[in-house]
Each structure stands twice: as C-alpha cells, then as structure tokens.
Amino acid sequence: MTHITCTHAWLRRNLFADAISGMTTVLLLAGVLWWLPGLIDWVLLKAVFKADAAACHAVNHGGACWGVVAEKYRFILFGRYPHAEQWRPLLATVLLLSVIAASGLRLLAGRRLLATSALALPGFFLLMGGGYFGLGAVGSDQWGGLPLTLLLASMGMLLAFPLAIAVALGRQSGLPLLRGLCALYVELVRGVPLISVLFLASFLFPIILPQGFSIDVLLRVQAGIVLFAAAYLSETVRGGLQAVPAGQHDAAAALGLGHWQSMRCIILPQALRAVVPSVMNSAVSIFKDTSLVTVVSLYELTGSLSLALAGDAEWRSYHLEGYLFIGLIYWIGCYAMSRFSQGLEIGTGDSRLRS
66, 100, 337, 347: least buried by Cβ within 10 Å? Predict the structure, then answer.
C-alpha cells in the first residue's frame, strides 16, 4: 500500500502537477503510443537481419536492413585496417577499454592505475602499428573505426587534463605576462570551432614546417584535439578553484604550507572534486567530436561507414541503419561515462563524509 501511495505521489508531482503538465503528459503518451507500433514494425518485425542484399531490396525500406551491419561491421569497426590483421585492433580496443573500465569500477586507482596505463598505452600502439615482435607494420593512415575513436578521445582527455590544470593555475598567477598568455590561449581556442583547429593541424601546420620535415597527420590531429579540449577544461578547473572557500587558503597558510603545497594538497583536490560532472561532460563532448576528424581524412566510426558504403552499390542506400548502429555505439560509450561520473561523485562524497 505504501508503494502504491509513493507511486501515485510521484506521478502527481512529476507528470500531473497541474492542468498544463497533465495535458502535456497525455499528449506525449498518445504520441508515443501512435508512433511506437510503427517503429517496432520497422526495427524488428519487417526487418532483414541476414547479410542478404536481395532480401533488403525486396523489403524496399519497409523494414530495417540490419543486413548491412552484418555485412559491413568489420569495416565499420576497424576501417581500412588489413582484414587478416584485424585481430590486432580488436585486442588493442579490448586492452584500452579494460583499463578504462577498471578505473571506472575502481578496480584500479592511484599508482596501480598509472602503472597499468603506462603498459596499456604502449601495448595499444604496438598492436596497432606493429613493426616489432613479428607484427607487420601498419601505417596510421590505415587505422580507423572504433580503435581510432577511442584513441583520439582517451588520449585527448588524458593529455588535455594536466594542460588544463596548468592553464587554470596560470590564469590565477600573480605574473601579468603568464596570466595574459594563458587568457589569450583560452580565448583564441574557444573562439573557433573544432573543425577549424583540425584543418589548421592537418593542412596549414605542415606548410610552416621546415622543408623535408613532417609529422604524422594522426599526431597533428591529436594535438589539435588536446589543445582544443584543454582550453575548455581549463575554464572548468578555474571555476572549481574559485569555488573553494577562502578559509581553505587561510587554513593552509596557518599550517605553514607554501603556495604550491597548499595548492597540491588542499585547494586543487577540492576544486577537482567540485567539477567532476563538468569534466565528464567535456569527456563526452570529446568522445562525440572525434567524428569530425573525417574531414581531414581520418576515418573513425562515421568515416569508416562512409567508406564501407561508398564503393558498394548493393548496400549504399542503407546508410540509415549503419548510422543507427554507430549511434548505438556512441550512446553506450556516453552512458558508460555518465555512470562513471556518478561513481566518482559518490566516491568523492563518501570521502568528504569520512574526512
């Protein structure tokens, strides 16, 4: 009886609080009931799940052609990586995801996490690039799909975070020149879209390099993502620093701690705990923004799908199903990061209670 009462109270509070709220709820529910049967019919009942182009043509888009995913999934997930060697990007992806999952589930933390990451990242590059231990060399221009997406997102966040902290501290520095340079960097980067940064890194930067000297396009694009993400993250961290009460600075000084000691041991940990949701929001944005690298000829998930369908007339018209498959991958990744963020918030909240 108590459960029924609580449910009724929740419905009344959230869905039927007043006449407008109740009318909106009824209209939305009616729309869902009208739309849902057709969606189920297209997604499941009339769908083609086998890699049979003739069956998909026979349905004529009356049902989803999931056969395109069954036919092209390896190309979508691994791009132009040599077919016979695709066990390597698969293993590299599992290795990287395992470290990320272990940190999110708090199975690894502190020095153990740093040590594991120090082994996992070289292992990822060794598997992808090869050239050692009997593995054939595969150039970064052939990397693509999910491994490239994860690499750009994870390395972008990993490298941008310490740079963001340094820039945030620089903007609070007592040195006018340092403070001005950090502010100029942030305002310049935040004033342009990411796609322009990628174009600069991919096409303009090689022009200004000395003759005969070149940097791999993947490294240039990764550097552009890092610099772009760090500018936004630095403002998030700076907001956290400003949110720390002034009494904490006074308490650190009373304990005899110097500026950098108090910043490292007292101020910065509190600031970072306060901005966990915003930092994770930036991580989600970086993960999704990796799709823009297609414009500079790096074929992550969305780019790999375009390549997979561009040269195959039989499957070319079923791009919607392919994008829905990719969208599901992105949703799973973003949802996992949101759960990771909630775990961090609970963990930091528990640590504050214990302290």
Answer: 347
